[in-house]
What does this fold into?
Amino acid sequence: MEETADGGIEASKNGSFRGTARVHISRLSFDNNTGKRAISKKNINRLHRIFQLEGCLRLDSENDVPVQIEEDILAQALAESRLIDQDLKLLPNDGKPHFLHLPQNYQLECLHGQHRILAGKKYLEEEYVGEEEELWWTVKLYLKGSLSKDACIRIQEQHPNSQPVSDGEIFQKIRYYHKQDNVQAEGKWWARLSDTKQKDVKQLLKMEEFVLVLDELLEIPGLWSTVKLGTLHRFLTLKCDEEMLHFLRHILFVWDKILDRVPRSAIDQLTVANLELRTPMVSRKDSREIYAMMETVQLFPSVSDPAVRQTLLRNLSTISCLIPSMRVFLENLKYLEPCCNVLKGLMNFTQSSTIRQCLFKSYVAPPCLLVETCEGKLQSATATDNKLAAYLQLWIYAMRNFPEMVAVAPKKELGQEKPVVLEPNPKLWIEISKMAVSLGFRTPKALKWGKQNPDESVARAFLLRARPPTKYEFTSITIDMATKQIAKILSMAKQIKAKTRTLRLTLPHGGESRDRRCGRPFENSQIFDQEFLFLPYMSGEDAPNSGEDISSFFVKRNFLRSFFDTSIGVNLSQSNNGESNTATTALEPDDTDLMDVDTVTQHTGNLAATKEMESKIELLQKRVHEIQIEARREIESLLGQLARQQQQSAKQAQAEKECIRRAENAEMAMHEKAGELESQLQQIGRDRLKNDELKLQLETISTQMRNMEQSKQQMQLRLEQAQNRPKGEQQKNNLYNNRETSNEQQKADLVGSMLRVQELELELEKKAEKEELLQSQLNKISFENNQLQSTNAEQQRKYEETQRRYLEKVKKYSEKINESIRLRDEATERSRTLELQSLQDRKEYQEKVNGQLHSLMQQSKEAIERYQILESQSLQDRKEYQEKINDLEAQLRSQIQRSNEACQNFKLQNQALELQAQRNHTPPNPDTESTFQEGAIISKLKAIANRPTTELRRVHFEVFEKQPTSTKVSIPLDEQLVNELSAEVLSANWSIFHPSGSVIPNARMLFKLAKDSAKPNFSIVSKDSVKTFREKQRMIIIKRPNRHDGSDSEVQIRSKKDTRHVKKRRRLGDLKLNEGDPKSNEEGAQDPLPEWVLYWNPEWQKILDDAMKHSPDYVLATTSANSRLTQRSFQTLLPDYGSPNGQGRSGWLDDEIVNAYMQLLVDDASKRGQKAFALNSFFYKKLAESGPKSVERWTKRIKVGDKGILDADAIYIPVNQNNHWTMFVILSKEKCIAYLDSLNGTGIEQVRKIKEWLEFDLGKLWVEKEWTTYSSSPQQKNAKDCGVFAVTSAKMISLQYDPLSYSFANINTIRKKMVVELIKGEILRDEEQL
It folds into this structure.
């Protein structure tokens, strides 16, 4: 049946296909395409770059765009183009399809290729400026109406070169075809989902309320491109249906408020990405960015009407919440989930009900509503919905304390350690249970836990954690007594009163960035906002005053309002003294930051108050200065836009003039052609007159001939009559002679007439031939005249259209200029107003500070008096303290004397040992005590290894007492045993080494490394063997084929002290240690620097100067991998070149330079007969984030032999982490991993990742014991040269030099030489330079 359906689709396509043609690219429309995808600016830019490199290939059949056209419109277009149906299916000799002239204002309905056409239009307008006839694209024509629905879908969805389809777009297609009852098309989209996603989506579609809301959201295409259906399991298991529905409806409400009457389809992916999580009404920073994006058409690109765009901008300015999206919804579920788990712990949860339904079933209304205003304090209040107010307080409590109640931690702050996942705090669970009962939610679990004492629960948990019942035995009476005692001690502690802070929804600077506005809160913001996470601060619908940026509390309040209806009108009751205790949010404007009086009174000196006052005044001055700078920047930005608009106007005017000139030239040529045609027509007229005269003459001769013929006939008739009558012979003869004479005369006249007739006929034939020739010429001239007239009309139409567009643009630019001038005037006026306001605030602040200063002076006098009293009291204390110090000094002197005596005894014992050794002919052993300690440590380690434990995994240690002998010890992987071993080793000043050669500083890191390693092996080294052990660890042997003769040469790179004497043999290219050098053991000997490192050819300077003269976007070089290097990239190599003090340039190499230089090393190795490969700088990042499986396709090209990586001579892997460049050089044949870090990093984690990748790629060929590591590199002395050190060290190894043979002093020369090498496309080796 499926084959039959496919056959029907193909038949429909073939039957409606009419051929291929070229059309103007502006006639292609996607407005009526129901299957079109959201516009992706990223994809358009990708295609545009491809077109710039390869051309747009409009004649390639794969790039043809299928379109639908009505049959009558096609017939009209063929007539206007002077074509027939068959011409559309045949290609002319030039290989280009015929150009089809469509009726005016007619748009072809395209079935796919939206991004291709947008990118092609951008490319063609740049490539063919002013050449309108070149702005065409090739289309495949299908008759509209005869193409079946299924065939249309097949064409739309099965086309090459399309971008990958996201989960959200698949869900859109499933719902669209479900509504259309197209089961076959719907099934094909279902097939694109995995089994797990299909199961989750089907479960979601059973929830009718969600389906209704989601179907409405599907009308906004830009919301779905980032949706991942793999997160649906979190969506389906939360049991917070009411809250999630509220958020989804909130998304619809906000976007409809922005659109007003604009169709929802105007919201594309780019618009959603640029607007989500912004609040233009509250944040002035967001408002400025939105205004700039509207000006540059980054928002709502499909809306071109200026009035509608102005309305959209005005609607955006009224949004006081964070603009939501489907991505934000799914991210916020990660914050809602731990709060859900807290509330689920209060109830006996059933599968069919939600959290709200369970809690509302157990709700018993209390006498009055209680509201928590601060930690542990409840106050009576009123609200429009008491049940909802109580319900919200439980959620807010969970938001405030979830890190200590469920095993979920806040997000990690940048630059800080990852937050620790805390164990559940029983005190908080008891408190929320008590609060739930007091609010009216009487669930069995809440009633049970609410009766417990929180302090006793904490005490019991502490006892059981400190002494686990599995290892220690307690009686129940002992535990109860100890619990009550600890609880009594805990109850004696008084809560510290928190410092009063002002709640701010907006901040003058340093607000929450967009990446921090959704999802679980970050660690610092969670701690900072705990003080204000209470219902009086979180409820209500009041919009805050606008500020520069928003605070983290604003984000949390927006989170609550997105999932819940918080407009419940909470009002706190008044206290007995009549004062209102209503908790209000102090929303101070961020332009002022006045001191609190309570804070000022804490200072006790006039100097402190004066400094505080000066700092506040300085802050106000800075604020005024910032406002002035901001106003100036806005004015400069407006002036820049005005200048750009004027330049565009000038370019447009020049283009219009060119069009007018071309039209005038065409008109003059047309007039000249018309004159020629007129003269030819006149000649034809004259020829026609001559022809008419000849015709008249011919008719006259014909008439004469007819008359002569009639006369002849009459004469014959008379002759016959005469013959019939009897007359005399004489009469007959006479008559006969007369007749003969007359007949001869007539015959002569007739012959003459016949000859003349023949001449006339010949002349008429010539005239007819000439007339036919002239007629054909006339037809040809008439055809050319018609073509010229149609061309002239088309040119005239284009000229009028161009002139109309030009006038519209001039009018638009004039309006923008006027608007810019108005905005500049407004900004200037606003700046003046702010300056005057700041002066007034400064005066008021000065008066307030003077009053506070007076009170501080009075307080300082009182403080001085109190200090004098205290000073007199402290004299006696000082005397007693001095006596105690004297006693301690006497005790210390006695201890020193005893220690001196012990030292003297030890010296005497040592001397006796030396005498005894001399008598026994044995060398003296001053390390007798150390040896004893070493033997004792090994004994302790073995004792730890023999401890009984349930742990099966073991950690292996190789203990070095004296090199080269060692002892192997293996202990269970138990944290307590590892801690004891580490304490014993470190207390004896021994060292623990990782296999990479780095020292492990403490027991915690040792246990973590052992636990994470598949084969944990470490070394324990005594303090006397550390030096020898380090030298052994840093020694590697590198074998490589000779660059010239192919023979093997051995390179030994040892410790830094030994590598000072590695030299290069210029002929053979071999590197060997010079063992016979007398300076090989001298401390401080200089590294042998090859001459070519500092060599600089004067001719290269010209290459350098020419390169840096170009503009930043000028392409200076192209690598063998077709990567283009612009002058902007080369500026990172020469930051100080051509710029005073290197202003604006960091000198930190970018990815293009590093990757290009690595490719240069690969090409150079290939010339020398070696097999080298370079992976780009994104390889390690992908490996570290997603593991070896994710980079499998990256390494497919490293297949140079049967063994893959093991057959390569060298593999270069640049690494960029935390803005720092390092380098891996994998010497596969020598089985060596070189990690080159110019900041002396050990790279333990990086080396581990590379080994994991090698193990994954090599499989059974990987044997970790056979591989060695090397980590020596010259060191940088600044923060920008890391990239140069990384690639230069790799180059040294590639050319068989010691990586330590250059230093920081050579970097400037190396930078310049790298520029020349990249431009010339080759490595400059010593043979070519010296």
Observations:
- Residues 575-607, 919-934, 1036-1087, 1140-1144 have pLDDT under 50 and may be disordered.
- The first helix runs from residue 2 to 16.
